[in-house]
Give the backbone structure.
Amino acid sequence: MDTAVEIRGLVKRFDDLEALASINADVLVGTLTGLVGPDGAGKTTLMRIMAALMAPTEGTVQLAGFDVVRDADHIHVVTGYMPQRFGLYEDLSVLENLELYASLRGLRGGERSATFDRLLAFTRLGPFTRRLAGQLSGGMKQKLGLACALMARPRVLLLDEPSVGVDPVSRQDLWRMVGELTEEGMAVVWSTAYLDEAERCDSVLLLDGGQLLFDGPPRDLTGRLVGRSLRVSGLGDNRREFLATALDHAAVCDGVIQGSGVRLVLAEEGGTSAVLAEEGGTSADVSAGETNRVAVEKLCAAHGAQLVTVEPRFEDAFIDLLGGGPEGRSAIAERFGDVALDGDVAVSCRDLSKHFGTFVATDKVSFDVQRGEIFGLLGPNGAGKSTTFKMLCGLLKPTSGDAQVVGVDLRTAANTAKLRLGYMAQKFSLYGLLSVRQNLEFFSGVYGLSGANRRQRIQEMIETFGLERFLDASPDLLPLGFKQRLALACALMHRPPVLFLDEPTSGVDPITRREFWTHINGLVRRGVTVLVTTHFMDEAEYCDRVALMYQARLIALDSPDALKASAASTEHPEPTMEQAFITLVEAQLVEAQLAEVQLAATQATPPGVAA
Amino acid sequence: MSSQLRAQIVKELLSTLRDPRSRFILIGPPMLQLFVFSYAATLDVRNVDIAVLDLDRGAAALELVQQVENADFVDRLERVSSLAQLGDRIDRQQALVGLHIASGFSRDAVAGRPAKVQMLLDGRRANTAQIAASYLAGIARQLSVEIMDDGAPQTVMPQTVMPQTVVRHWFNPNLTYSWFIVPSLSGILAMFISLLVTALSIARERELGTFDQLLVSPATSFEIIVAKTVPALMVGSLLALLMVAAGVFVFGIPFTGSLGLLVASLLLFILSIVGLGLMLSAVCQTQQQAILGTFSIGIPLILISGFATPVENMPSVLQALAELSPLKHYLVIVQGSFLKALPPSEVFANAWPMAVIAAVTLSMAVIFVQRRLQ
């Protein structure tokens, strides 16, 4: 097969920071190559170098035979590049955007209209040509961006995180389009932070911290784990306790809550974990001559649980490649003390609606969050989960309906009621102008802690989260994982019985995500109630119950297992959370699209012209 | 003080003053501006270039030209030989004023007839030219008196004996411009810094998301506003006092009023400005909006304060509006404290409006923070 992109010894440094460390890789013609890795892994840097928008520090990159440094002008002709936020002009209509990019590419006359017909059919944007780009949904914007990037029939298509902010249904559509393009012989590079997307690519470049960890078909990587991915079921309400025990076990390399069960990855036989076991500590867990599998079987039997082997996922392989996940005990939860809360309902809302002008962000949402559960608000960006979340914690005023936390409306309640609430925002809102220690002091002070008690809590947080090294640094300069730890420390300082987490793990690598959930699982075992929003479909598995939001409405509310079961079909007997979501949305979407097409049709008729 | 409030005040002080660079930016550039503006912004006219067309060449004309040439405000005097050249010099801005002395000037002067000189002024620089013209008129008047004294008998020329007006400027006898501008600038610059510090404070928190964090905490709107008042009050007052000190010790301006009353009025003044800044900040979504807002509030406050043009000259509507500007009241106090030993009753008359403005703006800021919910 022909090579479309040839990367040799590529290094990129920003001052002292090495964003890419000697990368060697090939991208083949007619394949979909996934550029996979957590945020900050170097994906965008590599994309921009391939698009000749940035020069490498060392090494060479050849794209369709052109060098990205010497032949930058040719590169811009043969590549289509779609950055994370494609430069659509929001005040121009779909057609005007297409015309602008066609003019930039020098397309004229018959060729132009033929290209437009082809692209509009391909993206299914035909009915919406008169709509302003700013009024398109996230998914439609990405499709329009793709159409603009495809204007010049590029030989290499570079898509930087095309699926961010796109609902699962539109995401399916994007995959279909990219599939057709590769069949025509185009080389497509698709960068993503979602590890589950890697499994759908023909080939994968796995980046972490600027290092290329894996290059090849995703099956080759997951193939190494066959027989090591397990699912434990029948644990009842003990699954969090079981997970904590299992993660501390030497035979287990990684584990996460999956609905009512637990998903485990066995440590490699004779691998690092086993060696660790011999050195002491947990040596009692694995008896001599016993395989990890047998050790885990014993553990399950002790808990009265069943064990089945399951298909390995790309994420399992990724964690295994990095040497396993964090341990299962949360030091902070152990010091937290049991939480007592009056009543069974921690958070409730009735017919909660929010309108911004004519735009409906939340439409008559009602639910109750039980004491001591993890309740997930799940949905793609723009589905209305953040708006709903903000109304619950008193940051937005509902247009109608009411919201209560521990029986009070936080907008009107006495400020002491807020002592029972812990809040961690999407962007880890910490004071960058203050040091880490000063942030801890501020948040403990503002929650009314003083004297010895305050000093003790601060010290506790510093020890638990390993913040000593950073005490005098600005939170802005911390690595993302530590920023998240500090934000969690600040939110937990006053030991709130109810915890609000708004997209707590967005942009965080899988290891740090696991560590975060270890703390949350530990806190829930202490009786803390957690309300969490997320757009990671797989993260819904950590929740006891999930409210699915789509286009401002609550479309389903149940346990993750029940939601998946309701979507099971002969095609997908064991659907993932994402497949379940798509099934649930599709019925609604058919209606919505029908309405949109009708609306677009009426708009397309000039006023005053009789039908 | 509750631990909540104390924690917030500490946070605000650290946010404003922790970084040495931001500490410098709050004090350094305003002090520099004080010195630059004090020397640059002056209404005295100096260094004037003059072109002279002397077609008379008599003794009186010569005397006039020499006196003009040696006048303090004249930098260069060029003698030209035609009317066309005279026009050309003004066209090319080589001369601000052209003097055209027609032939017969000396004869008329000696004969006691009104002797006329034509003055051509550059209208593009109307203000300076007007002032230069009045200086020149003064020289001419002086000269006519001299000519009369040792020239023609006075009885012949009764019409030229005009009453002489001698102006004496009290409080600032030499009309030193910096005596007027330094006290005013101390108020204006301190106002701008206080306005900017407070306007940015809530907007910055909103932009970074920490404001939400603050709103879900038990902190009340009142505490938030009190905490945000402290650093701006400190910085603004310190800056104003530094400038007053510079006025006394560097510019040598006599300080004749009461320092205690000035400091008390200064605190009221800064408080009223802080209230305005926080009101602005509570409605801004981004720091950029806050900066633009600072200018759209700050500039009118200065224009209406009586700093540039006397409030008495404004239309009555604007005069009423000027009463709402804290700067107008403070300028009366600070200028009065420097030059004319403003009595306590006058200080009080201008201090209470600032107290009212401060109470209103700070309360509004608390309400705006409470009503921040959409």
In short: Residues 334-553 of chain A form a domain with the Rossmann fold fold (CATH 3.40.50.300).
